[in-house]
Amino acid sequence: MANHNSNKIRQYRKPININLGMIFFGVIFVYMIICVFMYFTTKRVAGYQVRTGSLYVENIYTGLALRKEVVVDSSYAGYLNYYVREGTRIGAGKMVCTIDEGGRLQDIIEEQSMGENSLSEADLEELRSDIMDYKGNFDIRSFSSVYDFKYSIESTVYKQANANILDNLDKLNRSGESGLINVCNSPTSGIVVYSYDGYEDFEPSMIAEDILKKTDYEKKQLLSNELVSPGEPVYKLITSEDWSLIIKTDPERAELLLEKEYIQVKFLKNQYTSWAKVSTLTNKDADTFVQLTFNNSMISFCTERFVDVELILEEERGLKVPNSAIVEKEFYLVPEEFVSKSGESGEQGVLKEIYDENGNQLNQFVPVSIYNKENGYYYVDSPELKTGDRLRKLDSMAMHTISQLGSLVGVYNKNKGYADFKQIQILYQNEEYSIIRSNTEYGLIEYDYIVLDAQTVDENEFLN
Fold first, then answer.
1. Phi, psi torsion values for 152, nearest 5 degrees
2. What is the DSSP letter of 297?
3. How far apart are CA 237 and CA 70, in angstroms?
4. Per-residue confidence (pLDDT) for residue 114, from 0 to 100
5. Phi, psi at 71, each rounded to 5°
6. Which distant-in-sequence residues (6+ apart) come within 8 Å of 245 by Cβ?
7. Collapsed DSSP state (helix, strand, coil) of residue 203
8. ∠ CA 430-436-441, rounded to 5°
9. Crossing angle of helices 145-175/121-137, nearest 10°?
10. Which parts of the chain register pLDDT below 50?
11. What letter would DSSP give residue 316?
12. In the Cβ-directed half-sphere of 291, how many Cα atoms lie within 13 Å?
């Protein structure tokens, strides 16, 4: 028996070998699958860090020039001859032009043109100055100014030539033919202009956006040696140095300019600057315009109805945010005396009137988030409030029913891991960015993180 038991064969059990490498690899593999799944299923919200910056705002405008203008009409028929250069100040009773009924003076002009005429050195210097000024200010985008330059040079040349012809009036007077030549004297003092456009009696209240586009604008140029009839304009007088420009802006920009009261303006034609008093006006179509009033520089633009200017404003700096982050949200308006603090937590909230299952009236403290305070009202929000809820004033029987709503412009702050609405005050804005006021009570501070696209989240939504 002993030998029989000793020869019995038993199966050997292999020890369990744990491969730690495979387990570790399996854990990593499962983790990667979970991460990939979360990546494709989790909502991703892009953020933007708020920094202090500045914003380029287009400050170049075309303005309609309004002045005190008087158009002088002819009382005679005949050939017109000017003796004063355009843009010259003239006194009352001084001769501006003559109207030659019989054409005798025109014959003298033609006779003199056949002979040898020369301009004095002073005359040549005046022409040379005009040409250099035009060359320095020429802009290919305003090619029509070439014609204004042409008329200006013609006016200067005619003035010089006609000054010599005045000597022949004595001969005509002695020959008895002067009765056919009528002298036109200025009825008042002013700046002489040899053109008109129908805007001489224009009132600021008549302004419209189409006028500034110059769609139907037409200027009539008056020239020497032209034939005129009684009642036709022969020249224009600008009787005051005070004048104004009307430009088109949006209401927000107009309000900002009005707050400054006076602004510095650069005239793009000659790069000169001047200070203007700011006022605003609205036309019948509810369009907003800004009127810039000057008491100098008028003579430089006396022949122009539309003037290009640049407003020189101090660079506004503030917190710079993208426009895509800006959203408008409505809040409940609650009188400030109905907002109190909880004695336990110190949270701000309101006492809401509720009823239990037995119909007993109770007061429930509802915590609220405050977003702004204006005109004695708090802008508040809470998921436990709705329109029609009745609120009780602390330690009083006074009641208030929630009925008013107010909207605020703001962004969603994501510093706390969820979309937290913060009110902003926009100073300037272009197509991509806005400059907002910094360090406001309920607003943002520098280095805050906000949601880049406000349309991709809801308020109080948790963000990754």
1. -65, -45
2. -
3. 5
4. 46
5. -90, 125
6. 63, 64, 65, 66, 265, 276, 291, 292, 294, 307, 309
7. coil
8. 160
9. 160
10. 1, 114-116
11. P
12. 17
